[in-house]
Design a protein that fits this description.
This protein is α+β, with helices and mostly antiparallel strands. The protein is built from 3 helices and 9 strands.
Length: 149
């Protein structure tokens, strides 16, 4: 029994760990490509009124460029970088236009078919769970795909 356990452990250790490539990152951005409408947002424990969520749109291209629109007006845009090896996956948004040039929103995210959810902060430490409790400064958002991919 001990030999079988040792062989199992050694075989798991000897399996090469696949390195994430730029192609993997590009494929992930292709999954994000399109227009997303905001379904729910909780900012520092406070839910956004449902009547406001549908006015918010997030658009990604397949190179990681993004923009946020409210009622058709662009209120933020920039670039994103993702880390596919982080658990949960991580995404960093950098603002490249508007009043917040250079600001970063660091987040964790998950993508399930036509639902995209991220939880992040503008200042502080990257969240480790998908939550937004009062005093956390975390913003938890859920988007549903409208077009793309």
């Amino acid at each position: 029994m001990t030999s079988l356990l040792l062989i199992t452990v050694l075989s798991v250790i000897s399996v090469p760990i696949r390195k994430v490539t730029q192609d993997d990152v590009s494929a992930e951005f292709k999954k994000l490509r399109g227009v997303w409408t905001l379904v729910e947002e909780i900012d520092d424990g406070k839910p956004m009124p449902a009547v406001e969520t549908s006015k918010n749109k997030l658009t990604f291209d397949d190179a990681g460029r993004w923009k946020v629109e409210i009622d058709g007006k662009v209120v933020g845009q920039g670039t994103a970088k993702i880390n596919l090896t982080a658990k949960p996956k991580a995404i960093d948004y950098t603002f490249t236009q508007g009043d917040a040039i250079g600001a970063k929103f660091i987040a964790i995210y998950e993508l399930n078919d036509d639902l995209f959810r991220h939880c992040g902060v503008l200042t502080g430490t990257r969240p480790t769970e998908f939550s937004s409790k009062p005093g956390s400064k975390q913003i938890l958002t859920t988007f549903r795909r409208v077009t793309g991919n």
